[in-house]
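Subgroup meeting minutes
Present: P.N., E.W., G.H.
Scribe: E.W.

1. P.N. recapped why we're keeping a running log of single-chain structure predictions: easier to compare across weeks, and new members can see raw inputs and outputs side by side.
2. G.H. added today's entry (364 aa).
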Amino acid sequence: MNIPFGDLKRQYIAQKPEIDQAIQTVLNSGWFVLGEQGHRFERAFAKYCGAKHGIGVGSGTDALHLGLKACGVQAGDEVITVAHTATPTASGISLLGAIPVFIDIDPESYTLNPNLIEAAITPKTKAILPVHLYGQAADMNAILHIAQKHHLPVVEDCAQAHGTIYGNHKVGTLGDVGCFSFYPSKNLGALGDAGIIITNQDHLAHQVQLLRNYGSITRDVHEILGANSRLDEIQAAILNAKLGQLDAGNKRRQEIAQRYSTSIKHSDIQHPTPKDWGTHTYHLYVIQTSNRDLLRKHLEKCGISTGIHYPTPIHKQPAYAHLSTQPLPVTEHIVNQIVSLPIFPELTDAEIDHIVQSVNAFPA
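Output recorded in log:
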């Protein structure tokens, strides 16, 4: 049995008629940018999240970049975030000429540790950027309390948390703006790059609408300096076709995670620890083990592909080596132990059983 880490072809086949029809509808329309499919998806996804506004953009990185800019972050400003995330989180900051200030993570949720925020705030701090990692929400009540105390906007990185709930709210609606990626492997994925910003604040929505389209909403009138970051109609149509399956896909991920958590009983495996402040949508199922490399080799021999998210934290990446970053002991410890097991809705029960049995059979 050969089990891939992810299989986007299976997902496409499962929804092939709807996706093919969505693409054909756009081709037949002859309208490919800022059209009805995009507007429809913006409204639908905002409603799904419980937000007033949705503004489609070209990628999740663009969402962070434009979301921060709409909140007033400029070159030279500092933005507090984490180093244990995909590098695009920091890219969204750096594209502005702003400076990411990395603080450590909570060892259970793998998300920004609120207890470390205030010590990192300086006169240059202009925003806080928590990451809802692996499908687990950051501790937003604690983060928002500090942000409000210091009058700082909060930009949520929701790239791995479509449908994740914190308290009674979906992530992306708790801070000033929520930024989502629809990269193909996400819980809700397009068939190319795509993203969206959601917000409940009218003035921020207006700013993002301007920023994504050369500073223009009215044709030939450019109010501010903007960029080109628009959700194209084909990707929007695909997302419209797939949005209705997001909750079912998340439920299946949670079922798989539950089977892993209850059935993998290896003494050297530490399972994810879902926090009681909301739901975990398991974009990734990340375990820890002191024998990571040996486990991965063992699973590879069993025909099981695994991943590491992420082996090198951002503050250790060459592109960010120039930053003066305090030691991040939790981050620097866990990156040597984490392993991501396959988790996607199309995994079969037989494949899940094989993964469980193979991990339990690891001889370490």
